[in-house]
UniProtKB/TrEMBL annotation:
PANTHER family cross-referenced by the UniProt entry: ALIPHATIC SULFONATES IMPORT ATP-BINDING PROTEIN SSUB (PTHR42788:SF13), TAURINE IMPORT ATP-BINDING PROTEIN-RELATED (PTHR42788)
Tagged with keyword Membrane: yes
GO molecular function term, any single one: ATP hydrolysis activity
SUPFAM superfamilies with a match to the protein in the record: P-loop containing nucleoside triphosphate hydrolases (SSF52540)
Pfam families membership: AAA_assoc_C (PF09821), ABC_tran (PF00005)
Identification of the protein by name: Nitrate/sulfonate/bicarbonate ABC transporter ATP-binding protein
Gene3D superfamilies: P-loop containing nucleotide triphosphate hydrolases
UniProt keyword 4Fe-4S present: no
Domain ABC transporter: 5-240
Similarity-based family: Belongs to the ABC transporter superfamily.
Keywords on record: ATP-binding, Cell membrane, Membrane, Nucleotide-binding, Transport
Source organism of the structure: Pelomonas aquatica
Length: 431
């Protein structure tokens, strides 16, 4: 198969707040061939969006080789278009004008611009809305405009960065199916698509290959070919087996070659999963009920909990980190401590949660130790944010610290004053 995009040993880093270099991507090998759809799955902050921008030529790689149609890529490629999670439409322009923007920038004559834009608008099902403003459209219609704006350029390569995640489930599914119908019917000008997603079912329904992206730094760690013909039925046994396999790959320590990967030791700068304590407890209680009896297949757990993949995976990761459950082969297993936790009183749960937090989350243990060294038992949050910013961007550092604080408050490890930004020992410890 003819390669349209090829990446070899690609690396990318950004400067942290203190001036040190933070590695975002490292040793990334990737090949997007003509005639295929590839889905890329991975945690938030793993560098997937950065990778797409490198492929599009929007930002340069620090190291490695990036090629489009066999030629080195040193800037924006005319044959590569992107569709973003945010609709990114100009609110003062009509649908027609928004779709024509790229053609106008490329110097296409007015008459040809209008004709090509009308065809693209009709192709994605918005005929009759050419004169509408974005505020007059639903979310699904606005995303269609973003798609038409990309397709009107007739790009050989289409990169979709969480293109359906801002839509409700039904709208996103409908738009995804319509895109697949156009693709399989040969109506799209695009020759290859790369779809970044958080939705495992979406990836399996669309892709010819699913790649699992690792974090810290970002790299391809596993690959799953999918040979099922489209259209695919989400409830078919074949699709459900593939979804199970993706869950297994996302939660197991294996490399792209299938070799076992050494489990990373907890580190001060670990990116803690976005996991609410109340939801963690609810998921653990569901895991321990009569239906699951302490062991659940993750896709079943998603269905029973009525949460999304994007919500359940961080919760499962958090329970695993805290030793209350274990991830194994795409299943979540309650540990003996997890059983005791579910059966315990509210006070007992808090005590166990705090103990496990100090044992398994170095950031929480470091903050607690630092507070104990202070005469008044309190410190500003800034030093901890600065420390985290050495290995992640400021926004991610703030998110990680916020998660650590919420977990610590539940486990009565330390408290936080939202008015002053001070972290302090619990009152009972201060006394």
């Amino acid at each position: 198969m003819t390669a349209l995009i090829e990446l070899k040993d690609v690396a990318k880093g950004f400067k942290s707040a203190d001036g040190s270099l933070r590695s975002v991507l490292d040793d990334v090998d990737f090949r997007l061939a003509k005639g295929e759809i590839v889905a890329l799955l991975g945690q938030s902050g793993s560098g997937k969006s950065t990778l797409l921008r490198i492929m599009a030529g929007l930002i340069p790689a620090d190291a490695g080789d990036v090629r489009y149609r066999g030629q080195p890529l040193f800037g924006p490629a005319q044959g590569i278009a992107m569709v973003f999670q945010s609709f990114a439409l100009f609110p003062w322009l009509t649908v027609q004008q928004n779709v024509e923007l790229g053609l106008e920038a490329a110097g296409v004559a007015e008459a040809e611009r209008a004709e090509r834009a009308e065809k693209a608008i009709e192709l994605i099902g918005l005929a009759g809305f050419e004169g509408a403003l974005p505020r007059e459209l639903s979310g699904g219609m606005r995303q269609r405009v973003g798609l038409a704006r990309a397709l009107v350029m007739e790009p050989p390569v289409l990169l979709m960065d969480e293109a359906f995640s801002a839509l409700d489930v039904l709208t996103g599914e409908r738009l995804r199916n319509e895109i697949l119908e156009l693709w399989d019917g040969g109506q799209m000008p695009t020759q290859a698509m790369l779809v970044v997603s958080h939705n495992i079912e979406e990836a399996v329904m669309m892709a010819d290959r699913v790649l699992i992206f690792a974090s810290n730094p970002g790299r391809v760690r596993a690959e799953l070919p999918i040979t099922l013909p489209r259209p695919r039925r989400a409830d078919s046994p074949e699709v459900r087996l593939l979804i199970d396999e993706v869950y297994r790959l996302m939660t197991s320590a294996t490399t792209v070659t299938g070799a076992p990967e050494e489990a990373p030791r907890p580190h001060l700068s670990d990116r803690l999963p976005e996991a609410d304590v109340g939801r963690m407890e609810s998921l653990l209680e569901l895991l321990g009920d009569e239906h699951f009896r302490g062991r659940a297949d993750l896709p079943q757990l998603v269905e029973e909990s009525e949460l999304t993949d994007e919500e359940v995976l961080p919760l499962a990761d958090a329970l695993h980190r805290l030793g209350l459950a274990q991830l194994s082969g795409g299943d979540l297993l309650m540990t003996p401590l997890g059983h005791n936790y579910v059966e315990g009183s509210h006070e007992f749960r808090r005590e166990i949660f705090g103990q496990q937090l100090l044992t398994n989350v170095p950031l929480a243990a470091f903050i607690r130790h630092s507070l104990e060294q202070e005469a008044d038992g309190e410190l500003k949050e800034e030093p901890f944010l600065k420390l985290l910013s050495e290995s992640m961007d400021v926004q991610e550092a703030e998110r990680v610290l916020r998660v650590a604080i919420e977990w610590a408050r539940h486990g009565e490890v330390f408290e936080y004053n939202y008015h002053t930004g001070m972290i302090h020992l619990p009152e009972s410890d201060e006394d």
